[in-house]
């Protein structure tokens, strides 16, 4: 069994390039289902966030396929249907990183801890990786290898979060934006802010803004206005009323999963930003973009996107925390490899156990036959002996596995197979 992935992220590509390869949940399900059926993939998971898109597959080891070509074919079908020019594989090769087997496993464990995020050790990625696994599971496109790998990565990340202190572990892109704007003199506690979008990222952005003392309003879609909750202390308006509020705003954040712009240059121009005494700060946290880039060309509009919030330089304290995390991740990865290497042995171990239990029964069945018991009692006794014998044998075999190196254990297993194969 082989594990392979291909990915694009904030270290290799701009927000607009990443947007070309992003997936909504619906399109993720469709792509995973088609790829698994067409290419004979054992398992497939897509991780698609604002900062990255990754395709994970498990295959039989002799399977070979070009994941980037597979991805480009899928995206080009979408683009052609929308009347857009196709993507040339050669033009985007430089943006993608390919990993397989141990390199891929290590990447996922570090990624899930937030140690490959723009904001070091941020918490959102754990949820995002878990949600990617859940989506694949619900769509029947995962397999036991990717299932265990992703679950172990999430478990390892939670251990790191519990045992290792990263000073900025709970920050989000919005927190980074707030820190940057504060350093430039922006007064949040005297500001009116609007957050477009009430998904997970929108809620986090609204919470962060509300904690600064700003007056925060969150948009909700009209058809959902009676169903959704907004962060405590925030006001709400219908999404269709957003332009009416903009003239009163000092800062607007957009963080939706919409395939279309929530704000365009034309729409913002209607709010007459040139009449403002100070610039309207617009922050676009979405991938694909929510705010048309040309909107930043308007007078008195300052537009930022998610790539404007970069990592700070690594301090000695952070390096020490990274070293702690590495120890924890190493142990968790070792456990995954033990499971992975042992999964192919399970059927062989099971056969040895069944043969050994049968051998024991054949040696004692005459004694059981002479016991002064009813037939039903003899059957119950045999069942009890079979169960106990099976447990003893499995304890012996797994004890050998845990105390011998791999080659020595394989020699022992082969010897047992010879004995009980006679």
Automatic annotation (TrEMBL):
<comment type="similarity">
    <text>Belongs to the glutamyl-tRNA reductase family.</text>
</comment>
<dbReference type="GO" id="GO:0019353">
    <property type="term" value="P:protoporphyrinogen IX biosynthetic process from glutamate"/>
</dbReference>
<keyword id="KW-0627">Porphyrin biosynthesis</keyword>
<comment type="pathway">
    <text>Porphyrin-containing compound metabolism; protoporphyrin-IX biosynthesis; 5-aminolevulinate from L-glutamyl-tRNA(Glu): step 1/2.</text>
</comment>
<dbReference type="InterPro" id="IPR000343">
    <property type="entry name" value="4pyrrol_synth_GluRdtase"/>
</dbReference>
<feature type="binding site">
    <location>
        <position position="117"/>
    </location>
    <ligand>
        <name>substrate</name>
    </ligand>
</feature>
<feature type="domain" description="Glutamyl-tRNA reductase N-terminal">
    <location>
        <begin position="6"/>
        <end position="163"/>
    </location>
</feature>
<comment type="subunit">
    <text>Homodimer.</text>
</comment>
<feature type="domain" description="Tetrapyrrole biosynthesis glutamyl-tRNA reductase dimerisation">
    <location>
        <begin position="324"/>
        <end position="421"/>
    </location>
</feature>
<comment type="function">
    <text>Catalyzes the NADPH-dependent reduction of glutamyl-tRNA(Glu) to glutamate 1-semialdehyde (GSA).</text>
</comment>
<keyword id="KW-0560">Oxidoreductase</keyword>
<feature type="domain" description="Quinate/shikimate 5-dehydrogenase/glutamyl-tRNA reductase">
    <location>
        <begin position="189"/>
        <end position="310"/>
    </location>
</feature>
<feature type="binding site">
    <location>
        <begin position="197"/>
        <end position="202"/>
    </location>
    <ligand>
        <name>NADP(+)</name>
    </ligand>
</feature>
<dbReference type="InterPro" id="IPR036453">
    <property type="entry name" value="GluRdtase_dimer_dom_sf"/>
</dbReference>
<dbReference type="InterPro" id="IPR015895">
    <property type="entry name" value="4pyrrol_synth_GluRdtase_N"/>
</dbReference>
<protein>
    <recommendedName>
        <fullName>Glutamyl-tRNA reductase</fullName>
        <ecNumber>1.2.1.70</ecNumber>
    </recommendedName>
</protein>
<dbReference type="InterPro" id="IPR036291">
    <property type="entry name" value="NAD(P)-bd_dom_sf"/>
</dbReference>
<keyword id="KW-0521">NADP</keyword>
<feature type="binding site">
    <location>
        <begin position="49"/>
        <end position="52"/>
    </location>
    <ligand>
        <name>substrate</name>
    </ligand>
</feature>
<dbReference type="GO" id="GO:0008883">
    <property type="term" value="F:glutamyl-tRNA reductase activity"/>
</dbReference>
<feature type="binding site">
    <location>
        <position position="128"/>
    </location>
    <ligand>
        <name>substrate</name>
    </ligand>
</feature>
<feature type="active site" description="Nucleophile">
    <location>
        <position position="50"/>
    </location>
</feature>
<dbReference type="InterPro" id="IPR036343">
    <property type="entry name" value="GluRdtase_N_sf"/>
</dbReference>
<feature type="site" description="Important for activity">
    <location>
        <position position="107"/>
    </location>
</feature>
<dbReference type="InterPro" id="IPR015896">
    <property type="entry name" value="4pyrrol_synth_GluRdtase_dimer"/>
</dbReference>
<dbReference type="InterPro" id="IPR006151">
    <property type="entry name" value="Shikm_DH/Glu-tRNA_Rdtase"/>
</dbReference>
<feature type="binding site">
    <location>
        <begin position="122"/>
        <end position="124"/>
    </location>
    <ligand>
        <name>substrate</name>
    </ligand>
</feature>
<dbReference type="GO" id="GO:0050661">
    <property type="term" value="F:NADP binding"/>
</dbReference>
<dbReference type="Pfam" id="PF00745">
    <property type="entry name" value="GlutR_dimer"/>
</dbReference>
<dbReference type="Pfam" id="PF01488">
    <property type="entry name" value="Shikimate_DH"/>
</dbReference>
<dbReference type="Pfam" id="PF05201">
    <property type="entry name" value="GlutR_N"/>
</dbReference>
